[in-house]
């Protein structure tokens, strides 16, 4: 059980290192290799970790744009794309 926990902690270390905005893949892949992971395994975990902050960034951009432009309302279309539409009735 202990070797499995050690291995998972190594993967979690690489995953969280890749999620940091400044370090990202340039730091996470060498960290994973130095902790004993194969280069391919380290790269795959780093790619997944670097995608973790993306939804948070996109949602914060959408909320900030709705604050900056109150006459535009964010709208999600049927295909899942986010679109800002003008609401002419509220625009002065």
How would you describe this structure to a colleague?
The chain is mainly α and 92 residues long. The chain has two domains: 2-50, no CATH class; 54-90, no CATH class. Helices cover 61% and strands 11% of the residues. The chain has a two-stranded antiparallel sheet. A hairpin with a 5-residue loop joins β1 (72-76) and β2 (82-86). The mean pLDDT is 78.
List the total number of helices. 4
Low-confidence stretches: none
Total of domains = 2
Order of helices and strands: HHHHEE
| Mean of all residue-level pLDDT scores | 78
How is the biggest beta sheet arranged?
Answer: 2 strands, antiparallel
Give the strand tally: 2
Give the radius of gyration.
Answer: 20 Å
Structural class: mainly alpha
Using the alpha-carbon principal axes, give the shape: elongated
Adjacency order of strands in the biggest sheet: 1-2
Strand content: 5-15%
- The helix fraction, in percent, is 55-70%
Distance between the termini: 65 Å
Summarize the structure.
By secondary structure, the protein is mainly alpha-helical. The chain is 61% helix and 11% strand.
Keyword list:
92 residues, mainly alpha, 2 domains, 4 helices, elongated
What order do the helices and strands come in, and which of them pair?
Elements: H1 2-19, H2 24-34, H3 39-50, H4 54-68, E1 72-76, E2 82-86
Antiparallel strand pairs: 1-2
């Amino acid at each position: 059980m202990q070797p499995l926990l050690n291995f998972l902690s190594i993967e979690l270390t690489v995953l969280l290192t890749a999620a940091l905005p400044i370090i990202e893949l340039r730091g996470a892949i060498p960290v994973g290799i130095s902790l004993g992971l194969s280069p391919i395994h380290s790269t795959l975990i780093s790619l997944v970790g670097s995608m973790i902050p993306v939804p948070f960034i996109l949602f914060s951009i959408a909320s900030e744009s709705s604050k900056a432009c109150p006459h535009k309302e964010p709208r999600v279309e049927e295909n899942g794309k986010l679109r800002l539409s003008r609401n002419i009735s509220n625009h002065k």
